[in-house]
Amino acid sequence: MIFIVRELDSKDHKILYHLFLNSRQSLSSISKKVGLQKSVVEYRIKRLQTNGIIKNFNAMVDIFKLGFSVYRLNIVLQYASPDKEKEIINHFVNHNNTWSIASTKGRYDLIITILVKSPNYFYSFYEQTLRQYRNFFKEIFFSQLYESFGYEHSLLLNELSSSHERTYEYRDNGLTVDVDLVDYKILNLLAKNTRINSVELAKQINVSTVTIQSRIKKLIKSGVIKRYSITMDINKLGLREFIVNLSLRDYAKKNQIITYLSDNPFLWEINKAIGGCDLEITLYATNFEHFYRVMEDLRKKFPDDIANYDYLYVTEVFKSNVLPEKE
C-alpha cells in the first residue's frame, strides 16, 4: 500500500524518520544514515519545510517533571458562526498556558490542552473563558492527563513493520526537577527549534556556550528533555489523524489491548487520563475506511472486553507543543 505522497522518495522517508528520532543530530550524522551527501540532506530538509511537511523541529519536554498538571477540554460548539469559532480558537491559541489546540470532526469540535502549576490558575482561566463564550459551548468534557507514550513509527519509512519499543513515555508520578530561569529559557527555545546551535542559544540567553552545553546535558540526564523530534503535517503524508476514546468492559484487559495495538504500525500514541474513557488512542490512517478496519480488527480481537468507543478526526492543528513563555 502506497500512502505517502509520491513526491517523497525513500531517502525523504529516511530523513523524516531519523529527524523524528533525533532532530538535533548533525547533517553529517543524517547523511551517513540515509546514504546522501550532507549538502543534499540539507537541501531535502529545506524542501520538506518549504512544502509544509516538516512544520517544526521541537524538543520533547517532560512537562510533568517541570511540575505542570495537564488539563484537557473537549468542546462541542453551538450557535457559533465561522467568525465566532475563529475568535474562540484564537482565545485559546493566545493564552500563554495553552499547550495545544485542534479542531476536530466527530463527537467534539475542539480539543484543547492547558498546562498549569496550580488548579486555581486553571480555574481562573476556565471561569474567564465561560464568561466570554459559555453560550457557544453546548458541551464541555474535562479530563486530566496522567500518562502518554508512543512507539517507533515505521510508517515514516513507508514500511509497515511493527515495534513494541517505546520512543517516549511521560507519567505524572509526582517527581519534579528543579530548573532555573536559564534552564527554562533553553527549554523554551528548543521546544520551538531544536536545530538552533549552542552559539545562537548562548547569544539569545546571554550566557556562555559552555553553560548552554552543560545545561542541556543536565536536562537530558534528568529526563526533562526526553528527545528531539519534529512536528509534521501528516495530511501531506497522505495520512489522517484519528483520536479514539476507548471504554472497556473488562478493565483488567487494558494492558493486553495496549500490547495488541503496539503491533499496529499506524498507532501513534496512547494516553491515559483521569476522567472520561479508559484509553485514548491516536491512530494515523490513510482514510476513514482504513481507520474503520483497524477498529473492527480490535473489536474482533477483544469482543467481550471493549464496551464502546467514539472517535475524533483531527482537521486542523492551531498550536502544538508550546511551553508557557514564563513559569
What does this protein structure show overall?
Mean pLDDT is 91; it is low at 1-5. Among the domains are: 178-222, Arc Repressor Mutant, subunit A, CATH 1.10.10; 234-317, Alpha-Beta Plaits (2-Layer Sandwich). It is of the alpha+beta class and 327 residues long. The relative contact order is 0.18. α2 (27-34) crosses α3 (38-50) and α7 crosses α8 (209-221). The chain contains ten helices and eleven strands. The strands form two sheets. The protein has an eight-stranded antiparallel barrel with strand order 2-4-3-11-8-10-9-5, surrounded by four helices. The protein is globular and about 50 Å long. A hairpin with a 3-residue loop joins β3 (98-106) and β4. It has helices at residues 10-21, 27-34, 38-50, 82-93, 119-133, 181-192, 198-205, 209-221, 254-261, 288-301, and strands at 54-61, 69-77, 98-106, 110-116, 137-151, 166-171, 225-232, 240-248, 267-274, 279-285, 306-319.
SSE class: alpha+beta
Secondary-structure element string:
HHHEEHEEHEEHHHEEHEEHE
Q: How many E-type strands?
A: 11
Question: Which strands sit side by side, in order, in the main sheet?
Answer: 2-4-3-11-8-10-9-5
Number of continuous helical runs: 10
CATH class of the domain at 234-317: Alpha Beta
Question: How does CATH name the architecture of the domain at 234-317?
Answer: 2-Layer Sandwich
User: Averaged pLDDT, please?
Assistant: 91
